[in-house]
Design brief:
By secondary structure, the protein is an all-alpha fold. It contains twelve helices and no strands. About 75% of the residues lie in helices and about 0% in strands. The chain is globular, with a radius of gyration of 19 Å. The relative contact order is 0.26.
Length: about 325
């Protein structure tokens, strides 16, 4: 999809989940899948979808109000997941207690987070946004340590640090190419997005163990749409939907069906199998994917710093997947 606004690579929402559990320590299911396997391929696909998603979101928000675009793509993703769920899921819906928790958690993880994310994205440079959002694995690791919900091995800690170092290199290459910039207000919004997602992911982990992925995704999206509709009602009514070009609709379809529908399902599956911190590390591949998309569509060639950063991020992923 062609873009109008200048594209800068950004790292998205990707932060996995860990959760409060009755047991003192929950070891991520990585021990069940110590080697590189199907789940890793799926998470790489998730990172690719989310990396390219920033190009779609940037294009869409350049042609209609940002919050209106974001709410619309989330509603589209929720609608598709609802249809797929009704056609394919045969197991009963979660209990009332779990349903209430999922909707409530969705307010935080898909409502408040998305508000902070879009508000920050519209105010900060892409490089700054990616670097701030790349703190998600560290925030999750800190929460996992504080709540004793995920075992922190030396390999996992080393993987987090190496991955964040790689993201810093990627963004250094971006700033070296395009110059520095950004907004303090945008940075604050993005920092609040990191915190809200980390808390959401931590709370959600136990539910990923007993709730079907489609049902979990649908209920959390429904919860997130509540505050977004309240915040963007006027923008939605004021949007001239008839005049939107097919490029804008295509961007919305990709951001809704791909980044919300497909990628969220993979993400929650990763939470269940690998745990929050390991799953979130895959999100750090997004800046590199975004650079490749910009190179393809806008002839922005990657720098040596960005290539070195990609190697560090990949090394961090492999290191974090090792067991103690």
């Amino acid at each position: 999809m062609p873009g109008v606004a200048r594209f800068s690579p950004m790292s998205a929402t990707a932060a996995p989940s860990t959760a409060v559990s009755p047991t003192p320590v929950v070891t991520a299911a990585a021990s069940d899948t110590p080697g590189f396997g199907k789940i890793d391929v799926m998470l790489l696909l998730m990172a690719a979808i989310w990396g390219a998603n920033f190009f779609a979101v940037q294009y869409g928000t350049a042609h209609m109000p940002g919050l209106s675009f974001n709410t619309s793509r989330m509603a589209l993703g929720a609608l598709v997941i609802l249809v797929v769920g009704l056609l394919t899921v045969r197991e009963p819906w979660p209990s009332r207690a779990d349903t209430a928790k999922l909707v409530l958690y969705g307010v935080l993880g898909n409502g408040i987070y998305q508000y902070f994310f879009v508000m920050g994205l519209s105010r900060a440079r892409g490089g700054s946004a990616s670097l701030i959002l790349a703190a998600s694995p560290a925030a999750l690791a800190l929460l996992a340590w504080a709540t004793r919900t995920e075992k922190m091995t030396r390999f996992l800690i080393g993987g987090v640090l190496l991955s964040i170092t790689g993201v810093a290199m990627v963004m250094l290459g971006d700033n070296a190419t395009h110059g520095n910039g950004g907004s303090w207000l945008g940075s604050i919004y993005l920092a609040m997005a990191v915190v809200s997602w980390a808390v959401y992911a931590t709370l959600l982990r136990p539910l990923t163990q007993r709730v079907n992925g489609l049902q979990l995704t649908l209920l959390t999206l429904a919860g997130g749409l509540v505050p977004l509709l309240l915040l963007t009602g006027r923008d939605l009514l004021a949007t001239d939907w008839v005049t939107l070009t097919w490029h804008t609709w295509a961007a919305m379809a990709y951001a809704g069906l791909g980044a919300i529908g497909i990628a969220y399902l993979i993400y929650y599956h990763g939470l269940k199998k690998l745990g929050a911190t390991r799953t979130s590390l895959y999100a750090n591949l997004q800046p590199f994917v975004a650079i490749l998309v910009a190179w393809q569509f806008q002839n922005d060639r990657p720098t040596i710093w960005q290539l070195m950063g990609f190697l560090c991020i990949t090394g961090g992923l492999l290191l974090a997947r090792r067991t103690a």
